[in-house]
Amino acid sequence: MRKRHILLYPPTIEVKNLHKINIVDIRRCKYTEIDIIDDPQKVIKILGNPIKIINVNEEKESFPNLFFNCRFWEAHEVLEKIWITEMNEKRKKYLQALILLCASMIHYLKGHEKVSDDLLNKALSLISELPEDLLPLFYISLTLNS
Predict the structure, then answer these.
(1) What is the superkingdom listed in this entry's lineage (predicted)?
(2) Please, what are the domains in the chain?
(3) Helix axes 135-145, 72-85, angle to 10 degrees
(4) pTM, whole model, 2 decimals?
(5) Which end of the chain is more exposed for a tag (fewer CB within 10 A), N or C?
(6) CA 81 to chain centre
(7) Which ranges of 21-134 does DSSP label H, i.e. alpha helix?
(8) For 93-141, what is each residue's pLDDT tens digit?
(9) Distance CA 121, CA 137 (A)
(10) Which helix (H) or strand (E) holds 28?
(11) How far apart are CA 62 and CA 121, in angstroms?
């Protein structure tokens, strides 16, 4: 079974000739993320050595680290795992808003501005329903537990 990897390259790299590789997605922000379910060496032979190779099934990073490094897809996945088991409705709503924010950023970076705006509005709507004094506590708790 092939494992999922994300290869991080500089944002300016020209991505070409990857048609024989099982690509999940290619995302650009702080890095060019080449998300594959394939052997990373196939990409390396074409594009050269990446800045970093992430084995998605093994490497775990915190939500804040992922988010602030523009790795919104992975940040979204970290939050979803927490959201699924969350029992506190207010905290669940906060997590859902952050998931929508990550999804909004993913679409924005792909040039899907309308979809991004719609997701951002949904996220802001959810956050606006929460007591303002709880938001910092939710963020601190999430930071410590992700």
Answers:
(1) Archaea
(2) 4-55 (no CATH), 63-145 (1.10.3450.10)
(3) 100
(4) 0.77
(5) N
(6) 13
(7) 40-47, 63-68, 72-85, 89-109, 113-128
(8) 989 999 999 999 999 988 899 999 999 999 999 888 888 777 777 767 7
(9) 22
(10) strand 23-28
(11) 25
